[in-house]
Automatic annotation (TrEMBL), chain A:
<feature type="active site" description="Charge relay system">
    <location>
        <position position="169"/>
    </location>
</feature>
<keyword id="KW-0456">Lyase</keyword>
<dbReference type="GO" id="GO:0008614">
    <property type="term" value="P:pyridoxine metabolic process"/>
</dbReference>
<dbReference type="Pfam" id="PF01174">
    <property type="entry name" value="SNO"/>
</dbReference>
<dbReference type="GO" id="GO:0004359">
    <property type="term" value="F:glutaminase activity"/>
</dbReference>
<dbReference type="GO" id="GO:0005829">
    <property type="term" value="C:cytosol"/>
</dbReference>
<feature type="binding site">
    <location>
        <position position="105"/>
    </location>
    <ligand>
        <name>L-glutamine</name>
    </ligand>
</feature>
<dbReference type="GO" id="GO:0036381">
    <property type="term" value="F:pyridoxal 5'-phosphate synthase (glutamine hydrolysing) activity"/>
</dbReference>
<protein>
    <recommendedName>
        <fullName>Pyridoxal 5'-phosphate synthase subunit PdxT</fullName>
        <ecNumber>4.3.3.6</ecNumber>
        <ecNumber>3.5.1.2</ecNumber>
    </recommendedName>
</protein>
Automatic annotation (TrEMBL), chain B:
<feature type="binding site">
    <location>
        <position position="217"/>
    </location>
    <ligand>
        <name>D-ribose 5-phosphate</name>
    </ligand>
</feature>
<dbReference type="InterPro" id="IPR001852">
    <property type="entry name" value="PdxS/SNZ"/>
</dbReference>
<dbReference type="InterPro" id="IPR033755">
    <property type="entry name" value="PdxS/SNZ_N"/>
</dbReference>
<dbReference type="GO" id="GO:0006520">
    <property type="term" value="P:amino acid metabolic process"/>
</dbReference>
<keyword id="KW-0456">Lyase</keyword>
<feature type="binding site">
    <location>
        <position position="168"/>
    </location>
    <ligand>
        <name>D-glyceraldehyde 3-phosphate</name>
    </ligand>
</feature>
<comment type="similarity">
    <text>Belongs to the PdxS/SNZ family.</text>
</comment>
<dbReference type="InterPro" id="IPR013785">
    <property type="entry name" value="Aldolase_TIM"/>
</dbReference>
<comment type="function">
    <text>Catalyzes the formation of pyridoxal 5'-phosphate from ribose 5-phosphate (RBP), glyceraldehyde 3-phosphate (G3P) and ammonia. The ammonia is provided by the PdxT subunit. Can also use ribulose 5-phosphate and dihydroxyacetone phosphate as substrates, resulting from enzyme-catalyzed isomerization of RBP and G3P, respectively.</text>
</comment>
Amino acid sequence: MKIGVLALQGAVREHLHLLEKLGVEAVAVKKQEQLQDLDGLIFPGGESTTMGKLIRKYDLLEPIRDFYREGKPLLGTCAGLILLAGQIEDADEPHLAVMDMTVKRNAFGRQVDSFEAKLAIKEVADDFHAVFIRAPLITHVGKEVEVLAEVNGEVVAARQGNVLCASFHPELTDDARFHQFFVNMVREAVALR
Amino acid sequence: MSQNHQVGTDLVKRGMAEMQKGGVIMDVVNAEQAKIAEAAGAVAVMALERVPSDIRKAGGVARMADLRIVEEVMAAVSIPVMAKARIGHFVEARALEAMGVDYIDESEVLTPADEVYHIDKAQFTVPFVCGARNLGEALRRVGEGASMLRTKGEPGTGNIVEAVRHMRMMQSQIRKVQGMSRDELMTEAKDLGAPYELLLQIHETGKLPVVNFAAGGVATPADAALMMHLGSDGVFVGSGIFKSENPEKFARAIVEATTHYNDYDLIVRVSKELGGSPMTGLEISKLRPEDRMQERGW
């Protein structure tokens, strides 16, 4: 099993580190052709505007959608979540649009409003140390989307089939439980293929 | 927000810089330039009144930017907005924090307000980035609470030589500290003028505790890629974009070269498509000693 981390920009190293800690082969992905031998793909935290532009510039949009259609799991954290969303408030167009949900960028305010908090995440942990940095919120979810975590009644983690997302940064702490959950999704998908 | 929520922690402040890695932060002086930078793929913009090369030309005292410019830039883009405060000028920094700026650069590009002390940055909720020429300077800034570092280079010159010198110096000092025996560290801390606890951390991890970008002299896509090869986590471009002949193309090309710094075919392609010359460069030895911005800060 091999999982890629999209490495156009952002907290790539941290995701690779957690995957390696879980004993999973992990690679930084910059080019289309690297997708072929992967079983899952992670979209890291960073700047979604920048990553969205580079995804288009290097013609990664359709290859990643094909990857998803083959039943291979995706995980997006913070900016990565924005890349996965079907709709983005105050933006012209979504990016990958593989999750039936609407997101609001910088939903908690500016950097001075960034925070860390203990969070209960369904099927993962009831005491997850979650770091929110200029974080987005999921303001609307479709029928197929399962809500996994909330802050003040607002959705901050969700799953739809083989796609998982969090508006916080599980990659910024040493707690690998959220990544373990994703690795299990990838393992199940590999078994089904 | 519930009591469970903590703002302004080291993790949140340093984490913000982690999210900028592999990206380019561009100096802008108005909303129009900020939009060009965002469209080109910048991960953040630095709002100021003049880019460093114009600060050099104008002379006199360079202060924090007119706050109306900062406000205009914040309203124009959704990416983070940084702004510069003078070294030691904690009231300029408090004003920028109160406005909601995402990151403050306590910068030698502006005229220092204090010739002895830097800002006590740990007291702020907003994170700070600071310049450094060597490991001792870098760790003094982290000790004061900086959440991100950058080389000082020599701002506004379009000459990469000083940024290279500073990055190589820091990397070589990190390797040296990592290889030392533990009983040598206190004397090394004394010699470098670095906090012992931070030096010990570097000895154990082999890396700086915060993200370190390149800054001060980046003028071309190849300059940006060179700095990434030397171990930079990302790149600040000051005058290099809006003082070039084709800012849009330079901005896009520098973003691409930073992402794909070891793809030389790509660097050839983007360098051929620049559509104009880079900013005019300055020879460092021709600068008068009082014009060397990197000597500011202590």
